[in-house]
Design goal:
The chain is of the alpha+beta class. The two termini are 20 Å apart. It has 2 helices and 4 strands, in the order E-H-E-E-H-E. Helices cover 27% and strands 33% of the residues. The protein has one domain: 2-Layer Sandwich (Alpha-Beta Plaits). The radius of gyration is 14 Å and the shape is globular. The chain has a 4-stranded antiparallel sheet.
Amino acid sequence: MYARVATFEDSDPAELQTALDAISDAEGPPPGVDSHHITVYATGTGKVIVVAAFETREAMERGHEVLSAMSPPAGSMGSLVSAELTEVMLDRDPSAH
């Protein structure tokens, strides 16, 4: 599995909630983004981390290109400060045992 980890700073809580609602209400990822899972973390200090998971490196790279070219969704997660592409080395769900 692979992941794109995007970090945003200076998010406004109300605007962040609008963005999260837009993502939650969507029927799936944007066209061209073959992500099977998204997780959003917020520190409460204006930092937001968005992790999108992909099955293959190629899907991650294509998704990164599409996401990098997109305008932000409704609302705002803040200013994008980095987007890293990484291989997931461990993804353990303790309830699966």
